[in-house]
Amino acid sequence: MNISSNKKIKIAFIFGTRPETIKMYPVIRESKKYSQWIEPIVILTAQHREMMDQMTNLFKIYPDFDLDLMKHGQSLSQINSQSLLKLEEVLKKIKPDLALVQGDTTTTFSGALAAFYQKIKVGHIEAGLRTSKKYYPYPEEMNRRLTTVLADYHFTPTTTANHALYKEGIAKKNIFTSGNTVIDSLLLMQNNQFRFSDERINKLLDKGKQVLLVTMHRRENWGKPLEDLCKVLLNLNQKQKNLVIVFPVHKNPLIRKVVFNHLQEKKNIILSEPLDYQQMANMISLSTLILSDSGGIQEEAPALGKPVLILRSETERPEVVKIGAAKLVGTEAKKISNEVEKLLFNPAEYQKMVINKSPYGDGQAAKRIIEYILFQYHYLEHPPSEYIFDPD
Predict the structure, then answer these.
(1) Each residue of 217-229: b (16+ CB within 10 Å) or e?
(2) Single pTM value for the model
(3) Distance CA 189, CA 285 (A)
(4) Domain limits, the chain
(5) Which tens digit of pLDDT belongs to each residue from 22-69?
(6) Superfamily of segment(s) 199-352
(7) Does the domain at residues 9-180+361-387 carry the CATH identifier 3.40.50.2000?
(8) Are 309 and 291 in contact (CB under 8 A)?
(9) CA separation (Å) from 347 to 112, 328, 344, 356?
(10) Hey, which residues are catalytic here?
């Protein structure tokens, strides 16, 4: 489709969770630099209300449409069906030229499907991540795959993701290696003089202790895996007096009940509310070691030279394991404990995982994505091939 020279490209940015907001923000920010050519329209599903709002407030993202879908105890089917119905109404009204979705949430898939139903082109940011296991992670793996078959443009973080898409029959001309926009956001948030809103963190960090940052939230880790992790943390807390454990606890009540029952009011264990992105970026920077099942942290920590022990048996981000900046440790208590102690008590082993290089980006991913779109719609004469991210 050709856009006439006197018409702006109308881009709908569709997202609804905390991670999507973090990764979409740099692209929205970059699009505004080309206001003569691009009209950005921000559509929030608010699949996650409070945690998403935390990010939109931080980044000063003002939505054009807020579908406000969050309901207590909502199922995946409810999120998907309500998203489709409300997005249909909005997309029919604004008639965008392109819809951009990000990552692997239910909003990602429903946004792509709603755009497809209206015959609107779809760009998928962070395309091509795979474990090739249908239910792991659940539902993210299938959200990614289903979004892939709906997308027209695939913006990948790495060449590994490219090869996954090639195997699935996606044409090379529709794949563009941009790097991951999470690194753009991470670098924008860094502040050497940063002070945390939680004074408990400031006080303990001022004492120069080792810091173990912990997050766990994935559905497959609810129940026994989370219980076992808490027991590991209690044991570490008793053995290592110079260690501070900082655990920002997810809002899900099933997670909070387990974590607070085990770890509340323990010396040198700080259970905090979820950190906004600026606080989390600086928390990663100040940490000694990270224990997490988060995909975002696997991308962010290597850029800051912080080792990650991944609380999963599989990862759709194999690059970080390949370069040695992260290790899959699963959720078995003994293995987690052994790996943490090896890194905290053995400087040589620790240094092996301090890479100070991210395979996921260099802070220019959003620029590459927007320039690629401008080329596709004939506002740039040449494709931005000179900007392709090369992790090697």
Answers:
(1) bbeebeeebbebb
(2) 0.78
(3) 11
(4) 9-180+361-387, 199-352
(5) 999 999 999 999 999 999 999 999 888 888 898 899 899 999 999 988
(6) Glycogen Phosphorylase B; (3.40.50.2000)
(7) yes
(8) yes
(9) 47, 20, 7, 16
(10) 104, 126, 140, 217, 219, 250
